[in-house]
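Input C-alpha cells:
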C-alpha cells in the first residue's frame, strides 16, 4: 500500500509543479490555489508512505516521479523542446527509479 500512496504523492507533485508554472509567479490565483493544495496532498502522502518505506527510497522515487511527470507535461502540454539528450536523461531517471524499487526490501 505504501508504494501506491507514494506513486500518488509523486503524481500530485506533478500537479503542483505544473500549477506553479501556470501561476506566473503566483500572480494568477487559481493556479496558485491548485499548487498549494497539490503540495499539501503530495507532502502528506509522501509522509504517510515514509512510515513504511525507507527515507532514501521514498524521497528518490517521489522526486523522480515528479521530475519525469513535469518533463512529460512540459513536452506534451507546454510545447517544450524534446531532444535526444533530454529523452535519454529522462530514461536514465526512470532506470534509476526502477533500480531503487528493486533494491528496496
Amino acid at each position: 500500500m505504501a508504494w501506491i500512496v507514494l506513486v500518488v504523492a509523486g503524481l500530485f507533485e506533478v500537479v503542483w509543479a505544473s500549477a506553479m508554472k501556470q501561476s506566473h509567479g503566483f500572480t494568477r490565483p487559481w493556479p496558485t490555489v491548485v499548487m498549494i493544495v497539490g503540495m499539501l496532498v503530495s507532502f502528506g502522502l509522501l509522509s504517510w508512505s515514509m512510515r513504511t518505506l525507507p527515507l532514501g527510497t521514498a524521497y528518490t522515487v517521489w522526486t523522480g516521479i515528479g521530475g519525469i511527470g513535469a518533463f512529460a507535461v512540459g513536452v506534451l502540454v507546454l510545447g517544450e523542446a524534446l531532444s535526444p539528450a533530454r529523452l535519454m536523461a529522462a530514461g536514465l531517471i526512470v532506470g534509476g527509479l526502477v533500480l531503487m524499487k528493486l533494491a528496496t526490501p
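The chain has one domain: 2-103. The chain has a mean pLDDT of 95.
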